[in-house]
TrEMBL record, chain A:
<keyword id="KW-1017">Isopeptide bond</keyword>
<dbReference type="InterPro" id="IPR007242">
    <property type="entry name" value="Atg12"/>
</dbReference>
<keyword id="KW-0833">Ubl conjugation pathway</keyword>
<dbReference type="InterPro" id="IPR029071">
    <property type="entry name" value="Ubiquitin-like_domsf"/>
</dbReference>
<dbReference type="Pfam" id="PF04110">
    <property type="entry name" value="APG12"/>
</dbReference>
<comment type="subunit">
    <text>Forms a conjugate with ATG5.</text>
</comment>
<protein>
    <recommendedName>
        <fullName>Ubiquitin-like protein ATG12</fullName>
    </recommendedName>
</protein>
<comment type="similarity">
    <text>Belongs to the ATG12 family.</text>
</comment>
<feature type="compositionally biased region" description="Low complexity">
    <location>
        <begin position="30"/>
        <end position="53"/>
    </location>
</feature>
UniProtKB/TrEMBL annotation, chain B:
<feature type="domain" description="Autophagy protein ATG5 UblA">
    <location>
        <begin position="11"/>
        <end position="105"/>
    </location>
</feature>
<dbReference type="InterPro" id="IPR048940">
    <property type="entry name" value="ATG5_HBR"/>
</dbReference>
<dbReference type="InterPro" id="IPR007239">
    <property type="entry name" value="Atg5"/>
</dbReference>
<dbReference type="InterPro" id="IPR042526">
    <property type="entry name" value="Atg5_HR"/>
</dbReference>
<dbReference type="InterPro" id="IPR048318">
    <property type="entry name" value="ATG5_UblB"/>
</dbReference>
<dbReference type="Pfam" id="PF20637">
    <property type="entry name" value="ATG5_HBR"/>
</dbReference>
<feature type="domain" description="Autophagy protein ATG5 alpha-helical bundle region">
    <location>
        <begin position="120"/>
        <end position="175"/>
    </location>
</feature>
<keyword id="KW-0472">Membrane</keyword>
<comment type="function">
    <text>Involved in autophagic vesicle formation.</text>
</comment>
Amino acid sequence: MSDKNDDDAPPSSPTAGSASTENAGTDGKSPTSVDSPSVSPAPGATASTSSKLKSNSLKVDILLKPAGDAPIMKKKKWTVDRTKKISWVSDFIKKYIKSEASESLFLYVNQAFAPSPDTDIGSIFDCFGSDGKLVLHYCRTQAWG
Amino acid sequence: MADDREILREIWEGKVPVCFQLAQEEVYTGEQPDPFFLLVPRLSYFPLVTDKVLRHMMKHVDPEHHGEMWLEFDGQPLKWHYPIGVLFDLYGMSTDLPWKLTVHFQNFPEEELLRCSSKEVVQSHFISVVKEADALKHRGQVINSMQKKDHSTLWAGFMNDKFDQFWSVNKRLMENSGEKAFMFVPFRIYRADQIPVQKLFKPCADSGESLTLRHLLKTAVPELMETDALISSRVLIQGIEPPLDTPVCWLSEHLSYPDNFLHICLMPRVEVES
């Protein structure tokens, strides 16, 4: 499951795990970076730490890996809201690898099955996540049947 | 592998009477076409059984302005990728029969429904769900040991209503003993207006005790058990309310849909007026 490049992401994003990304223009559509530890130790602020923990539990870490001839994403590890759909992740990857919106992109779990586009990430993470993250393979053609 | 073959047969033969009617605002020919009646298998998917409905209605819509056909019940667009029985349990259970659905060719609700351009799309969805189920039950080992032709046999058996052909392959996916015992039970819980719940659930406790539907609900929807909400809910699988102390393994082997998932609908219990 592990990839030696897992942590080879660009340096820190200070907003990790905290800011709402919904109102930050077009960029706000991106998942939050997870380069820095997601729960920062806020000294003396127990209440805020616990609320932060709570908001973090609404997000999960995903690791995006290419299959077939799909281009590599320089940054592979992202944090996304549990309620986001597979179709949203797929659109996000397409934008990132500069693929046309009309081109197809297939997402696979366990290198075995393609969850339906309206499945929420949280459920897939609960069932198929391991080591605190969910690995998704993306591919331009159907890879695993 | 299930030993109550009669139950599998009964489930396989479950059908819902449906009345299809073209949306009034989409009638182009001036005259509302006759409604179309069908008895559809609960286990099937709408795109597999509505060819005739499509042909019947197509003659009455604007030839220049129509897109993919989609179905609606009482304002609720119906997802083609849910088995018909799930849609009926979720939305149609408390209405008069036949179930009256509205047929649309315009204003496809992109936000709510997936596109379905052909039966191949249904097939690839179906096989993918079967693979997911086997990933949960057997770490995918059974499905991966199968050949392409087994997948085709499974699909053809399902699609052509050939019970024996379907079960000749499905019995391997339902293998539940020794090394092939289910690790987790594939299930989804549906409630109107909520995203389905899917979690890991082992059919047996560490002590070896068989876990029941009550245990499963407690794990998957704990908020339901904390209050007395369960008393006011109907727990429907395949249109029936199994006792809550039914072992989940038995349910999985006998009441799963052909996609190998146990689809459970939670419905508010409608008060019977006297």
